[in-house]
Design goal:
It is globular and about 50 Å long. About 80% of the residues lie in helices and about 0% in strands. By secondary structure, it is mainly α. The chain contains 13 helices and no strands. The chain starts with 17 loop residues before the first helix and ends in a 7-residue tail after the last helix. The protein has one domain: Up-down Bundle (Na+/H+ antiporter like fold), CATH 1.20.1530.20. The longest helix has about 30 residues.
């Protein structure tokens, strides 16, 4: 359904130049690399021996969240571009700040890092699959997908080069030069997050007039969507019988999405469609706020392991 708040939304082209996209690609690659240097092949072997928490987290990330998102779209029936923006964000892997927020929440940070790694690899297949599957089930978004003719292989290549390659290089460096990664780990993590936050702030500032006009049209939907993601992660981990320590990690990992990747896909494959772009951009701001607030609440009590 269309409301006056949505009028003109899809005609908006955000101030996001090709150079800005290249910079965002590089920032996300650096952030992923900074996460990867915390990992070794032994981490993956250990999870292979006790895979339940990771499997539960991936199920929550790639099955539960898209289902909840589709339910929200059917209930609210927003403008097609906004609906597809919600679907795309839900199809992305966990966000890079989830590891930091999980640590602040007193959750299993090692599980969070591993989930980010596995979800990133899985996103090569699952992100385009989820966008195509759920987007085609809803008639208004199906029309957008048919008009854009998104190429799943091209999406997979984009995700692979931007996220998976830095992951492999980071793990390899940690194995071959552990002393080097030990020295660079904390400075690189703080630097990469500072650069990422600065980029979001600058992007928001350069598009502030658009946000003042259109953010209200999607703000409530994004807040509800994010709450569904956090709640879905919590309920899924609880039903799986996981410890509170693991449950915190899965809750946050499900509720913190890689909206930066979402923006890159939107500008790379959907022409920067206004409704989709505003959803992904607002998600990038709101999930950081909600995650930090939730971490502060969770950190008041120690989680049983």
């Amino acid at each position: 359904m269309t409301t006056p708040a949505y009028a003109g939304l899809d005609e908006v082209v955000l101030n996001f130049s090709p150079g800005s996209l290249t910079l965002l690609n590089a920032i996300l690659a650096v952030v992923m690399f900074s996460i990867a240097i915390d990992l070794t092949p032994a981490d993956f072997k250990r999870l292979a021996r006790a895979p339940k928490p990771v499997i539960t987290g991936l199920f929550s990330q790639f099955i539960v969240l898209p289902v909840l998102t589709f339910g929200l779209v059917l209930l609210v029936q927003p403008r097609a571009s906004i609906a597809l923006g919600l679907i795309l964000v839900a199809a992305c892997p966990g966000g890079n700040i989830s590891n930091f927020i999980t640590h602040r929440a007193g959750g299993n940070a090692a599980l969070s890092v591993s989930m980010t790694a596995f979800a990133t690899v899985g996103a090569i297949l699952l992100t385009p699959l989820n966008v195509a599957f759920w987007g085609n089930l809803y008639a208004p978004t199906r029309a957008i997908l048919r008009a854009t003719e998104i190429d799943p292989v091209a999406v997979a290549i984009t995700v692979g080069l931007m996220l998976v390659l830095p992951l492999i290089l980071g793990v390899a460096l940690n194995v071959l030069r552990p002393a080097t990664t030990a020295k660079m780990r904390k400075p690189l993590q703080y630097l990469s997050m500072a650069i990422f936050v600065a980029f979001i702030v600058m992007a928001l500032a350069s598009n502030w007039d658009y946000f003042k006009v259109f953010a209200g049209a999607v703000a409530a939907l994004v807040v509800v969507h994010n709450a569904l993601a956090l709640g879905g992660g919590f309920v899924t981990a609880t039903l799986a019988g996981l410890s509170p320590y693991d449950r915190r990690a899965i809750t946050i990992e499900t509720g913190i999405q890689n909206s930066g990747l979402g923006l890159i896909l939107i500008f790379g494959f959907f022409g920067g469609l206004g409704g989709m772009a505003v959803v992904a951009a607002f998600w990038g701001i709101w999930h950081a706020i909600s995650g930090i607030l939730l971490a502060a609440i969770m950190n008041r009590t120690e989680a049983a392991r």
